[in-house]
C-alpha cells in the first residue's frame, strides 16, 4: 500500500511541476480576472462532476474569502441551482444546463470559466460557445490537448496528463493560485484571515 501511495504522490508532483511551464498562461488568466473585477464585472464558472466542485470552490473563494478579510467579489457557479439544472436538463436536455443560465446572467465584460478534464463535455462546450458569442472572455481548464474547448478560450490551462485525478488536482492548484493573485492585487492591505 505504501508503494502505491508513494507512486501516486510522485505522479501528482510531476504533473503539478509540469504545469509550471504554463506560468505565462496562468499569469494572463490572473490579469484578465483582476481586470474583470476592476471593471465591476463578475465571473461565471461551470463544469461537471469534480469540475463542478472546482467551479463552486472558485466562486466560493471569491464571494467569501481566500486568505484575506476583504469585501466579497461577484462570482456565480452555474452548477449549484438544482432547480435550474434539473428543469433545464429535463425540458431541453443536459447539454443546455450551463448555456441557458449563462445567457440569463452574463453581461458584457464578465468572464466565463469553463472546466472540463477532457475538454469535450457537450454542456461545457455549449456554454463556452455562448460566452464567446456574447463577447465574454473565456478561461478554460482542461487536460493535455484542451479538446474541443480550446478554440473557445482566450486563455486555457492544458494539464499534461491523461489521468482525470491528476488533471483535477492541477486545476484546483491553479484556481487557488488565481484566488491569491486576485486578492493580493485588489486588496493588498487586507489583513490575512488565517
Task: Explain what you see.
- The protein has 194 residues and is an alpha/beta fold.
- It contains seven helices and five strands.
- Strands 2-1-3-4-5 form a five-stranded parallel β-sheet, sandwiched between helices.
- α1 crosses α7 and α3 packs parallel to α7.
- The longest helix has 23 residues.
- The radius of gyration is 17 Å and the shape is globular.
- The chain starts with a helix and ends in an 8-residue tail after the last helix.
- The mean pLDDT is 97.
How many runs of DSSP E, i.e. beta strands? 5
As a percent range, the share of helical residues equals 40-55%
Roughly how many Å apart are the termini?
34 Å
Structural classification: alpha/beta
Content of β-strand: 5-15%
Mean pLDDT: 97
Q: Round the Cα radius of gyration to an integer and report it.
A: 17 Å
Which blocks of ≥5 consecutive residues have pLDDT under 50?
A: none
Q: What is the approximate shape?
A: globular
What about the largest sheet?
Answer: 5 strands, parallel
Task: Tell me the quaternary state.
Answer: single chain
